[in-house]
Write a structure and sequence with these properties.
Number of helices: 2
Largest sheet: 2 strands, antiparallel
Structural class: mainly alpha
Order of helices and strands: EEHH
Distance between the termini: 83 Å
Radius of gyration: 30 Å
């Protein structure tokens, strides 16, 4: 079988791959990778490649890993915020300022 690209010129169609589509695994140590895996498992269930019990087991396992990653991300964010607050407090002590404003305040101008 050939594919016509231009009148008078024909290009052969490459034969289909013997192996078919390769499975590309996403890393399971990221939220995106876990969501990709859960979607892949769901598509396998819909296609009838796995039974419902296998589906439940895989979804439960990936859900536990995802919850653990969420918890770790929240802890990391909390630690980072705490360090930033400590640095801000140290800068305020050195400069005698609070949140970027000097200790004295100018009198506000009256509105028209």
């Amino acid at each position: 079988m050939t594919l016509s690209t231009e009148p008078g010129k024909r290009k052969p169609i490459p034969p289909p791959s013997k192996r078919g589509r390769t499975i590309i695994r996403k890393p399971l140590n990221t939220i995106a990778g876990l969501l990709h895996e859960q979607c892949r498992v769901y598509r396998m269930l819909v296609a009838g490649k796995i039974d419902p019990e296998e589906f439940k087991a895989r979804m439960w396992g990936t859900s536990i890993i995802r919850q653990t990653l969420h918890t770790q991300a929240e802890i990391d964010a909390g630690v980072a915020l705490q360090r930033l607050q400590e640095r801000l407090d140290a800068i305020e002590e050195v400069e005698g300022r609070s949140n970027g404003f000097s200790a004295y305040r100018r009198q506000a101008l009256p509105a028209n």
